[in-house]
Amino acid sequence: MASFKRDVRILLVGDEKVGKTSLILSLVSEEFAEEVPSRAEEITIPADVTPEHVPTCIVDYSGQDQDESNLQDEIRKCSVVCIVYSVVDEDSIQRLTTYWLPYLRYTLGEDHRTPVILVGNKVDMTDVQTLESILPIMNDFAEVETCVECSAKTLKNISEVFYYAQKAVLHPTAPVYNPDEKELTLLAKQALARIFRICDLDNDSLLSDDEINMFQLKCFNAPLHPQALEDVKAIVKKNVPDGIIKDGVTLKGFLFLNTLFIQKGRHETTWTVLRKFGYEDTLQLSQDYIAPKINVGLGCTTELTAQGYQFLARLFDKYDEDRDGCLSPTELQNLFYTCPIMPWGPDVNNTVCTNGEGWVTMDGYLAQWTLTTLLDVTRAVEFLAYLGYNYQHDNQLSAIHITREKKIDLEKRQTARNVFRCHVLGAKSVGKTALLQGLLQRNLRYVATLNRQNLSNFTINTVQVYGQDKYLMLHEVDMMMCEMLTPTELDCDVACLVYDVTNPRSFEFCARMYLKHFIDCKIPTLIVASKAEYPEVRQDYELTPAQFCSRFKLPPPQRFTCIDKVNHDVYVKLATMAAYPNLKRLVHMLLVHQRPLWLEERIRHVKSLFQSSPSSYIHASIGLAVAALLGIAVYKVATSSSASSTTALRR
Questions:
Q1: What DSSP line would sit under 555-584, residue for residue?
Q2: 415-432, pLDDT tens digit by residue?
Q3: d(CA 437, CA 447)
Q4: Which pTM value belongs to this model?
Q5: For residue 103, with 0-12 CB atoms within 10 Å meaning exposed, 13-18 middle and 19 or more buried, which class applies?
Q6: How far is the C-alpha of 200 from the C-alpha of 207, rounded, in Å?
Q7: How far apart, in whole angstroms, are the C-alpha atoms of residue 17 and residue 91?
Q8: Quick one: DSSP state of residue 359?
Q9: How far, in Å, CA of 440 to CA of 429, rounded?
Q10: What phi and psi values does residue 52 have, to the nearest 5 degrees?
């Protein structure tokens, strides 16, 4: 929710003897004081006794006790200025426009937003009203919110003076209503149109009774009585011909209602709505609303929660008007209508899955949000606010999950992460782009048709790891930056070093990057032999790729081709290595027919359960099955890679 003002500071100014101090003392004591000091002390009224439940500070000004610098300081500090004049003193009325209002502009700037209340005191001394002569002043000075006539002596309208002063701060007119045009300001129309779009849950451009009642509950904590709702619709229908269609309220009708509230002096109704949807006095969304504090610890990552995915999926369905499972360019523009800018560029179509026309599918759409949440959670949280996530939730934090530190995952030999980051490094023209696009099931022929200016350095898609869908994000690291990568920039869940089997100088780059960046870290590393549809040439390096992997206990080189059908094994292997980083050395052990120590211990532990008691049989069986299946699965992955590598060497 947008932050409300925590207090209101009211400053009373005006000529001498107009009754500024008497007004304050009459408000506090509820009786008129015949003798008053030259200036009242600053008074703070507690929140629980003010109509708007906001602490209110009332400050008096006296030209006898204070100089001009004091006056300017107080003007700059206050929330609202009450210029007091005497209704029986024509000079004090004239000085509203010849001195006081120009002086405020001089002090605060010509376009200042500090609201002003004109207060005509001493109405008990005349039967003549001065409001008619004051109205032109309100037209000439937009900062004047209202004018109130009162009497400090008879206490007439004393409370109203300070109520309107509070109201001018909390529910200002100028940002939302243009009195000359007698209509809402452009910013107010834009803000209310955004709110209408968010509340129109079925995207039919109408607010149904259910949608109106949900809106009422959000803004005012109570639904409208059925008869009251019918009365409201009747008023709209009477005044706006197309304000009601098919018994639903249109955007025109919605804007008319808010205009009517303001014209009837019920500014607080429109402002309550605006503030519930995050707007400040400037009609900009507040920072508290779009950027709640989120602390991501070192070694932690950010993912979307089930609530986050559900909201985004519903939003996709809302704007997929033809129900084809994709968002056309027009549908995508409509989806992001409530955002200040379009967050996705043409590169998104080459980052996630699309249909044949390049339109983002539901899977691709959710993947792009997953990518944004991983790489820039602040941006993800901000756009969730723009899109209306907070309409049905307290704030965006319920959409974000912060994973535990990676080092804890390594210690416990398990992770609950669902999104894994893979850095792809390789020399120029070794096939990195093909590898990235292959993750989206795009073969080499399709890649050749892409506009390279719209290519992204990222791709993301789901990959199955032991029957569970995990997101794998590939990031092509700029070749020129590879030599200068810092530990922070290197941070990822798995590294992929790519060489071209037809280029004898390409593997040297992979070997150098591994020895420079990855040999002493805990990041699992896979070497990929791209363009595997061609015969492999001998690499200009002291070790063959297979020998290099064997020496440094890496999995054998993974052959990759995507000339027709994409070889998906490489992505499964990368995702599996990322999900199980503690198994970094396991593949090598299995290749030399060794069981890792932890697997031996696990099997011994399970066997001991069989010997303890019959009740342990089921648990022991499950334990043995898990240990055996894990060993077999990894063994199969390893041996398939070994076979591929051996075949390559024979060639």
A1: PPPEE---SSS--THHHHHHHHHHH-GGGT
A2: 899 999 999 999 999 999
A3: 7
A4: 0.83
A5: middle
A6: 6
A7: 12
A8: P
A9: 20
A10: -95, 5
